[in-house]
């Protein structure tokens, strides 16, 4: 995508966590190509700034201009910004391919998303590992039963000789602070949600990874794995 280098690019994708992680490679490419990019996100996600230090993330509460540029139009350009709407991809294509549409908009191959560069906070990862009562070389299963937008819980039963560690919202930690716990697990069992993106992009994840169907709050059914497995490359067990 050819854009004026003289204007700031505003990325419209302020939520949810999985979408933010998924589009980060787009933003990082724009930055690497010399563009000045600003990225407004919901305040609850600003803690990801440490993991993406080259990205100028701005809390929505401090960016009152957001609604001016929040449009279904792919691009809004004025004297100040070139606003690219990745958020409204769901309205431009079939719902089960709207994630791909985010990359189609900027004319990048879908597989580009795995070029994401995550700067890990190893000190915080180690702190979380200890806080969970885990020991070096301990074998355990990591289980995530929750997904957004309403933190719906789908129980996951894992019968194993190893301890089950359940993911939860812990004050002071973001999803990316769980990477150390994730990569040291014997297996990961998760609902199809934002965690699947670091699982797929990071090469040090365990071989045994299970993805369970996600509940659709809109109609009371469950999504089919085909709605998202085309985004992934690893050999998951889909349940």
Strand content: 15-25%
* Rg estimate, integer Å: 18 Å
The sequence of SSEs as H and E is: EHEEHEEHHEEEEHEHEEEE
Low-pLDDT windows of residues: none
Number of strands: 14
Largest sheet: 5 strands, mixed
Set down the secondary structure blueprint.
Layout lengths: L7 E5 L4 H16 L4 E5 L14 E4 L6 H4 L5 E3 L3 E5 L12 H8 L16 H10 L8 E5 L1 E2 L4 E2 L9 E4 L12 H5 L3 E5 L4 H6 L6 E5 L2 E2 L4 E2 L14 E2 L1
Parallel strand pairs: 1-2, 1-5, 2-3, 6-9, 6-10, 10-11, 11-14
Antiparallel strand pairs: 4-5, 7-8, 12-13
Summarize this structure as a short list of keywords or feature phrases.
single chain; 239 residues; alpha/beta; 2 domains; five-stranded mixed sheet; five-stranded parallel sheet; 6 helices; globular
Give a written overview of the molecule.
The protein is α/β, with parallel strands linked by helices. The chain folds into two domains: 8-115, no CATH class; 122-238. Helix content is 21%, strand content 21%. The protein is built from six helices and 14 strands. The strands form four sheets. The chain has a five-stranded mixed β-sheet, with helices on one face. It has a five-stranded parallel β-sheet with strand order 9-6-10-11-14, with no helix packed on it. β1, α1 and β2 form a beta-alpha-beta unit. The longest helix is centred in the N-terminal third of the chain and has 16 residues, at 17-32. The termini are far apart. The mean pLDDT is 95.
């Amino acid at each position: 995508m050819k854009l004026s280098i003289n204007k700031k690019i505003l990325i419209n994708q302020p939520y949810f966590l999985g979408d933010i992680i998924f589009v980060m490679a787009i933003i990082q490419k724009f930055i690497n190509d010399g563009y000045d990019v600003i990225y407004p996100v919901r305040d609850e996600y600003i803690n990801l700034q440490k993991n993406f230090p080259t990205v100028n993330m701005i809390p929505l509460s401090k960016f009152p201009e957001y609604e001016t540029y929040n449009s279904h139009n792919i691009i809004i350009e004025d004297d100040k910004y070139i606003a690219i709407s990745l958020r409204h991809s769901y309205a431009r294509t079939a719902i089960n391919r709207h994630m791909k549409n985010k990359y189609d908009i900027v004319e990048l191959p879908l597989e580009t998303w795995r070029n994401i560069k995550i700067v890990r906070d190893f000190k915080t990862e180690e702190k979380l590992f200890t806080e969970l009562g885990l020991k070096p070389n301990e074998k355990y299963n990591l289980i995530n039963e929750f997904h957004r937008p309403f933190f719906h819980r789908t129980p996951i039963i894992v019968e194993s000789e190893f301890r089950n560690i359940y993911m939860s919202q812990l004050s002071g930690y973001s999803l990316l602070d769980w990477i150390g716990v994730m990569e040291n697990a014997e297996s990961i069992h998760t609902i199809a949600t934002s965690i699947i993106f670091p699982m797929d992009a990071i090469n040090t994840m365990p071989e045994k990874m299970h993805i369970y169907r996600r509940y659709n709050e809109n109609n009371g059914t469950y999504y089919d794995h085909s709605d998202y497995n085309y985004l992934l490359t690893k050999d998951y067990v889909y349940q």
